[in-house]
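Known limitations

Structure tokens in this collection are predictions and should be treated as such. Users comparing against experimental data should check residue numbering before alignment. To illustrate the layout, the record for Protein-export membrane protein SecG is reproduced below. The input appears on top and the generated tokens appear beneath it.
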Amino acid sequence: MNIVITIILTVQLLAAVAMIGLILVQHGKGADMGAAFGSGGSGSLFGASGSANFLSRTTAVLATVFFVCTLALAYFGNLRPTSSGSVLEGAAVVAPAAVPAAQTVPATPASGAAQIPAK
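Generated tokens:
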């Protein structure tokens, strides 16, 4: 089970790093307007319009892989064996200790004069 969790965690980390890189490589919609007036270079690695489709689709695929890995890790993280060694579960089974007769609380409250400390 630990091997499966390690593999899922590795895939999730690789997808996250790749997604960060792809998002940083993409340019915003306002960058096209600046390139149209000659202020920026319009040439790119994938061509003028091909980069948006390729990078957007790859980012969407990596985001899907990331979310599926996150759901799988949450599922495997909540799986617990039926007999767990939890401290709180063990405390509920132990019976409370018997209170000695000398330490019992009186049934009637003490009067106000008895509560005043003596000097």
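For this record: The chain has four helices and no strands. The chain has a mean pLDDT of 75. Please report discrepancies through the issue tracker.
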